[in-house]
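Record format v2
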Amino acid sequence: MDVIITESLTRRYGKRIGIEEVSFAVPEGSLFGFLGPNGAGKTTTIRVLLGFMPPTRGHAKVMGSDCWIQSERLKAEVGYLPGDLRLYPWMSGMEALKIFGSVRRRDLMREGIELAGRFALDLSVKVRMMSRGTRQKLGLVLAMAHRPRLLVLDEPTASLDPLMQEELRRHLRALSKSGHTVFFSSHTLSEVDDLCDTVAILREGRLVAHAALEELRNRSQREVIIRWRNALEMPQAVPPYLEIQRRDGNIWICQLAGSSRELVRWAASQGVEDLSLGRPDLESLFRRYYEGEPP
Amino acid sequence: MNRGLLAKAWRESWLLTLLFGLGLALVEGLLSYAIPRFQEQLSALWSRLTFIQSIMQALVGTERAGPLGPEMIGAIVWVHPAVLALVWGHAITFCTRVPVGEIDRGTIDVLLSLPVSRWQLYGTETVVWLASGIAVVLFGAMGTVGGRLTLAGTMPIEIPKLAILTFNLFALYLAVGGLAWCASASGDRRGRVIAVVFAFLIGSLLLNYLANFWRLAEHLSFLGVLHYYRPIPILRDGVWPMRDIAVLLASGTALWGLGGMIFSRRDLRTV
């Protein structure tokens, strides 16, 4: 079942395009990465999904509910951390859990305290006394304390230290394993690469890619080092998916733009002594998506 | 209505209401005590400075200011600029907390991520606002009673007239609040919204003043809120100004409703 479905979702601010014809689906239990450079339309999409603004055109449904008309209903099952989180300065973590629990008509204390322990957060401190990172932790606790079916996080690691970022990733993986869906918006590839199983990439308000990360890895180039037994056995021509970057004696350093299986099959028929394959270079693939070149 | 939202609104506003209420009680108490004591000096000043007469005429709501008698003294307590500033100040400060205050400080994202409808949020805030407004005007009435009690015998307290004045003041508070809700629901910057509402109130005051000697302003004076808040006739006749109260309540309700409709349909994003 898809937790989020958007069809031709368009949102304009006057003449300016926020998002244009964005269509994607997020399967239940997935860790969905929503990538794009600053101003690509990630936050606009999230705001439409949460019913903060109606779409200009198209539809968006979250757990079967229309995002604009039935936003109150869908938000009972959604946890949200805004990109630019602001909390009430007079609140302490405890007060926040109490008030938010009362609004949600659920006791958030037990889960909230457990999450606070996980993120090393002191719930007795008032928001006005908290550092930015601590506020971010409280925002995460408040977004997750009701164990939502869908967790929407807009650049959640922005103010977290590396240890907390790792803790968050661990927790999100655990949530996903237990069937919760995570919609993870970011402009940093490495954290999406590390966490997510599916990604959508936005650029200038348009969706330029939507695929499983594994599929994108297959599409991206990889560095290949081939060591030949001797110079005589080096072939005169190479397959089209292999591009030689540098020759160093009987060692070739190449870029693979196809499947590794085909490469191995080809290499087996040649006088190859050793072959090593690097990690897929997602960075350059994503850079090309970001910069608008066809990948 | 949502209990959690109610708790949040109460937590954010009780101190504001207490301070404005105490301020109003203090001001009304002091005026009720001081003005009759200095009646002679004030009367001399009153007869010399005619422009003060026209300002007071505009404020207290009478065709001719006349001499500084007990009714006028009683009325000054209810229309003194400090009194109006406190009543309007509370209404404007409270009604611009949500939604424009939340938008301005960026907390609207968190608030709207909760499973409540916008009407539910608006309604809950309104309930706390109404309760706070009642508290503020009652504080004012208690201040008047307190001030008068120290002058026992010279200025008797007429409870029915006091009740009418308090209710008329509350109706004025509701009308100003309704306007503030409407502006709050439409704006993105709290400072601007407060400025707009404040400008309307100053305009209303000015219109009432100009109506004393300018025919066009007299024709337009019905557009200002102070046209419907006139303590002198109440203190003189002790009759409920039903038309004035009805106009204030109806305009307050209509503006509040319009604000709710705007809020329920508008885009909400932090600025």
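Residues 3-265 of chain B form one domain.
Chain B touches chain A at residues 2-5, 7-8, 11-12, 105-107, 109-110, 112-117, 120, 267-270 (CB under 8 Å).
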